[in-house]
Design goal:
Blueprint (H helix, E strand, L loop, with lengths): L2 H16 L5 E4 L1 H4 L9 E6 L8 E2 L9 E6 L5 E4 L9 E4 L4 E7 L4 E5 L3 E4 L15 E6 L7 E2 L10 E6 L5 E3 L11 E2 L4 E7 L4 E6 L2 E5 L14 E6 L18 E6 L3
Parallel strand pairs: 1-2, 2-4, 3-5, 9-10, 10-12, 11-13, 17-18, 18-19
Antiparallel strand pairs: 4-7, 5-6, 7-8, 12-15, 13-14, 15-16
Length: about 260
């Protein structure tokens, strides 16, 4: 083998090894801190007393269908930062005895959560009232062919339970104010997501995340329509000046904010 051939072999060999060197690893906070490593088919990340940290971050990206499992036997709760997880909350608590599985979706550029404490429901096989014996994390998805005009949250839950309602349906739905601490305006439009947390001390669900409705006042009448979400933004373009009439009624805790480009 000539020198060029030898050099080529030395350069190629490590690359070939790196594509197969570790399909699965098990790590702890002592090994990697709170940043779970990427580049593996599966990472098992274990929390325990004396080997604990909070918060914990999933890899920013991974190959499609890569898996991270987080398992805790620690006395203390750990917060998992959820900015790149397919759930509309900023962080997720994992307690002793719990385990969550995250599978990376390259089409969504997000980690999709699953596990014994997670359920995915839809109108097929379920009523418009979400089950009282729901899991800690429940997703309820609606779509064309699987749709309710109105959806009802459970009467009760455990403290910190999460319900996320999503819709890809053409038709609008609403989420009943029953069992909500503050029955805001909750119309569910195409591509909308609402997330609710259960507060045991209030015996009620509270909105954690809701869609933002932006109304372009340059194209609308000065009279603001009845809110369809707790979050409405009035966008007033430069050079426009008029009186704004707020709606006569709104849901509890509905907010209307005004943004103006005018001097």
């Amino acid at each position: 083998m000539n020198k060029t051939g030898l050099l080529t072999a030395l350069l190629i060999s490590p690359v070939a090894i790196s594509t197969t060197y570790a399909a699965e690893i098990t790590v702890t906070p002592h090994d990697v801190g709170g940043l779970i490593p990427s580049g593996y088919d599966k990472v098992n990340y274990k929390l325990a007393d004396g080997n604990w940290i909070s918060p914990v971050s999933l890899p920013a990206s991974a190959k499609n269908n890569a898996v991270v499992e987080i398992i805790s036997s620690a006395t203390y709760t750990t917060n998992i930062l959820a900015g790149n997880v397919d759930i509309a909350i900023s962080q997720l608590a994992i307690k002793s005895g719990e385990k969550y599985k995250f599978t990376y979706s390259s089409s969504k550029n997000k980690w999709v959560i699953s596990g014994d404490n997670v359920s995915y429901l839809n109108p097929e096989g379920h009523s418009e009232r979400i089950d009282e014996n729901h899991k800690k994390i429940t997703f309820f998805d609606m779509y064309n062919g699987g749709w309710f005009k109105k959806l009802y949250l459970p009467k009760s839950g455990k403290d910190g339970d999460i319900i996320t309602v999503r819709s890809d349906a053409t038709w609008d739905s609403s989420i009943s104010g029953e069992n909500q601490l503050y029955p805001s305006s909750t119309i569910l439009k195409t591509s909308d997501t609402y997330t609710f947390f259960y507060h045991a001390n209030k015996s009620a669900w509270v909105i954690e995340q809701a869609p933002l409705r932006v109304i372009d006042m340059g194209k609308s009448m000065p009279e603001v329509p009845y809110p369809t979400s707790p979050r409405t933004l009035l966008d007033i373009k430069e050079g426009m000046s008029f009186h704004i009439t707020l709606p006569a009624k709104a849901g509890d805790r509905d907010q209307i904010r005004i943004k103006s480009d005018s001097a």
